[in-house]
Design goal:
alpha/beta; 16-stranded mixed beta sheet; 16 helices; 16 strands; LRR_dom_sf; F-box_dom; F-box domain-containing protein
């Protein structure tokens, strides 16, 4: 009988590629020398530290001590995502950890993506080390420059993706020079301001000539940015954006004027993804009509709508969803709407008329959960489903056991392609077990297990920055 160790060694690469949990990869490293040789690169390829990890701050110290002492392990690191960092340290301990971080980064010779978002944890020496990583293409950092010199940012070469979280005025002052220095390599710009006044239309207008090749634009919480600033960026774009996020921008943002500008320039002719916040100070009916017209030339695959407040009295209309699905349903793979309620009839239209739908994030009433569950079965390619149901004032939350049973009931009515299901704050991985009926016929039933993938969807990262 063939044993696992009898298979060709080159197949181990394909097998280990499906192992998601770092703990499981660590166990594989201990099997024997051959497994260690093949599993170790996978173990260190993507490194994540989130605030909710147990002993996350001590893990930071252990991680960077290992990478500093073992250069061959550091060379395996391609993605480094640090969203927590010990700050309350004595001076000597802080200096020691900082030196470990600097040395580790220098040895991460194959680092392609770095995320470092803990406020106050990034300093000039660490930033210089990152700027010397020749393979680095993606950089996401906290923009509070109290501990580092913003001018160091202009030393980064060949970046394709920049993400700045709550950038200070000093960082924004060097942003035009930095973007000009990057030339045509930059493809993605993400600014998360959380109600900052520093990002303005004037800043975006000054950046627009050097962002002509931009493909992805994400703006969040920039409350002084209107249709003028975004319009300048999309008008200067040579090839058309692939994705745009416009969330929590200025109340003065005029969707109708922006739509007319995009129509004239055909700015959205290549657009595949859009994320929008429904403004609180306009007619939702008029706004959705302008959004529909805005997307008339797009080749939409992802549509995400958010509301700052729960839209109860003025929901996004059933007619809007019908028109959107009629125009883009054949291509849509991901639909996400938060704080915007959808009735079972709307969910049925989405699931039955979007044959390529893989991800659905939706909000419905608790009383509609049973009816909504029947709406998901037509989505034959659905892989991820997350349903939020708001609780009325004084209404008790659903017990964890009941919540899991409800999620399992919903999963049983979905396509066998479903691999992840969530209700409110709970998320499970969907696995299928083989059963045999009384006639000896085999069939599968879904079962829910803890989620294995350490990567966290972006919509769940609120509060980790």
């Amino acid at each position: 009988m063939a044993q696992l160790l009898d298979i060709p060694l080159e197949l181990l690469v394909d097998i280990f590629n499906f192992v998601l949990k770092p703990h499981h990869l660590a166990v594989l490293c201990l099997v024997n020398k051959v497994f260690n040789q093949f599993a170790t690169p996978f173990l260190y390829r993507h490194i994540y530290i989130f605030p909710w990890y147990k002993d996350s701050k001590s893990k930071v110290l252990s991680l960077f001590r290992t990478l500093a002492e073992c250069s061959y392990l550091a060379a395996y690191v391609q993605t480094l995502e640090i969203r927590d960092f010990p700050k309350r340290l004595f001076s000597a301990d802080h200096s020691y950890l900082s030196s470990l971080c600097v040395k580790s980064i220098r040895q991460c010779t194959n680092l392609r993506s770095c995320t470092w978002t803990k406020d106050g944890s990034l300093h000039s020496d660490l930033l210089r080390s990152l700027s010397n990583c020749q393979q680095l293409q993606e950089l996401e950092i906290n923009g509070n420059s109290g501990e580092y010199d913003p001018l160091i940012l202009t030393q980064f070469q060949n970046l394709q993706k920049i993400s700045l979280i709550m950038p200070s005025v000093h960082v924004l002052n060097v942003l035009p020079t930095w973007i000009k220095a990057l030339g045509a390599t930059l493809r993605s710009l993400r600014l998360i301001c959380k109600a900052s006044d520093h990002v303005t239309d004037e800043l975006l207008e000054s950046l627009s000539p050097d962002l002509a090749d931009l493909e992805y634009l994400i703006m969040f919480g920039c409350r002084r940015v209107t249709h003028k600033g975004i319009g300048a960026l999309v008008s200067a774009n040579r090839n058309g954006l692939l994705a745009i996020n416009m969330e929590a921008l200025s109340p003065s943002f005029d969707m109708r004027v922006f739509r007319a500008l995009c129509d004239r320039t055909q700015a959205f002719r290549r657009l595949r993804s859009i994320t929008l916040t429904v403004p609180a100070n306009v007619s939702v009916l008029d706004w959705t009509r302008d959004v529909y017209d805005l997307l008339s030339s797009a080749r939409l695959e992802t549509l995400q709508l958010y509301s700052i407040d729960m839209l109860g009295d003025t929901p996004v209309t059933h007619d809007f969803w019908q028109r959107i699905i009629a125009s883009h349903g054949s291509r849509l793979k991901r639909i996400s709407f938060h704080r915007i309620r959808a009735d079972p009839a709307t969910l049925h239209i989405i699931c039955s008329q979007c044959p390529r739908l893989e991800q659905l994030f939706a909000v419905t009433e608790r009383r509609d959960l049973e009816a909504a569950a029947s709406s998901f079965s037509p989505a034959r390619n659905l892989r991820t489903l997350h349903i939020n149901f708001p609780l009325a004032a004084g209404e008790a939350s659903m017990p964890p056991v009941t919540l899991m049973q409800t999620a399992l009931s919903i999963s049983s009515r979905c396509s066998p392609t479903l691999t992840c299901v969530g209700l409110n704050t709970q998320v499970w991985q969907v696995e299928r077990v083989v059963c045999i009926d009384e006639n000896g016929e085999k069939y599968t039933e879904p079962t829910l297990v803890p989620r294995e993938n350490p990567e966290i969807p972006e919509q769940f990262l609120v509060g980790t920055m």
